[in-house]
Amino acid sequence: MKTTDKISITSTVNNNIKTVWKTWTKPEHIKNWNNASDDWHTTKAKNDLKVGGKFSSRMEAKNGSMGFDFGGTYDEVIPNKYISYTLDDGRKVTIHFVETVNGIRVTETFEPESENPKDMQRQGWQAILDNFKRYVEAVN
């Protein structure tokens, strides 16, 4: 179930667009940054980055207590600039990559689900984006 109010999160990553894009889209990198906290990890990631292509990842608690699959289908892909997709539950997500003097500004906008409070969802997605930033800035 989805609600209509969209949530946006953003972060500016100090690296070049080529590295930011590659790190966002390649499964071998996704598995290294796609978690909101150190007690979670992504055990599997697949990504067919094209319109109509599918992506999926498996996020699990490191202690094995819980996990979930996250996936969807790409609606639009403009390399180094923009991605939009529809999650398997029907919610829409957009991601903008904008070059600025301070680095690459990544902005994700998503339709929240209705099971968890919006603030919790915003914090979770922001924590993952912050982890992405840390990972990319460590990559050379």
Automatic annotation (TrEMBL):
InterPro entries: ASHA1/2-like_C (IPR013538), START-like_dom_sf (IPR023393). It holds the Pfam family AHSA1. It comes from the Bacteria. Residues 17-137 form the Activator of Hsp90 ATPase homologue 1/2-like C-terminal domain. Gene3D superfamilies: 3.30.530.20. CDD domains: SRPBCC_CalC_Aha1-like_4. Belongs to the AHA1 family. This is SRPBCC domain-containing protein. The lineage of its organism: Bacteria, Pseudomonadati, Bacteroidota, Flavobacteriia, Flavobacteriales.
